[in-house]
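User: Quick sanity check before I run a bigger batch. Here is a single chain. Can you write out its predicted 3D structure?
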Amino acid sequence: MALPIALQLWSVKEDAEKDFFDTLEKVARMGYDGVEFAGYHGKNAHEIKAKLKELGLKIAGSHISMEEILEETDKVIKFEQELGNKYIVCPWASFPTINEWDDFAEKLQQAGVKIAAAGLSLLYHNHNHELVSKEGTVILDRLFEAVPASFLNAELDTYWLEYAGVNAINYMDKWKGRTPLIHVKDMNSSRRESTEIGNGSLNIKGIVEKAHENGTEWLIVEQEAFTQAPLISVEIGLQNLQRIVADL
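Assistant: Done. Predicted structure follows.
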């Protein structure tokens, strides 16, 4: 079975801010299987769920701020249950000391216990700064070692792994069984920024093959730098990624 492909809607955030549902319609017409949310633009869970059903789009997950996840856990759970989303993703955290990271891990586990009890799953999404070693330990490793898989899993961003000098394919194997979602971005090496999938230097085919081998549930397209309209770029990325997935 081919891996489904979703779009992280942060990639088209300006369009979504102007007209959220029109943007979802355009994403569906491109041929994406689903979306990963990065905000709901004033729409309630019932409205969004109905729109997704109309468009035939599934939910890969949702990026929800660290503050909301930790401080408004019950509210987050209720909304995501109404929406029909399984994966709650913490998209960013940064702390200057290892003690603060350890405190964050404890708080994530507390939220993860509640989220798991509700039948949902908590994930953490990396950038490059979590691959830095502090006091002899890599922060991202320490986080996943501190919190059991029952309460925290990984949404590995393969672009940021490579940006940090880490081999994404090898790192995906390190956390095999804990990576239901994988972010796929390509890199324009000369500018050290993201570009359309298939138009950069990363081993996207190898990443896709490893995701398939590891039982990943969703490939999620994300792009953060553009030389043309974001909606055009993410369609090019989808088409190139679909060709790779078709060859699995």
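The longest strand covers residues 58-63.

User: Great, the batch can go ahead then.
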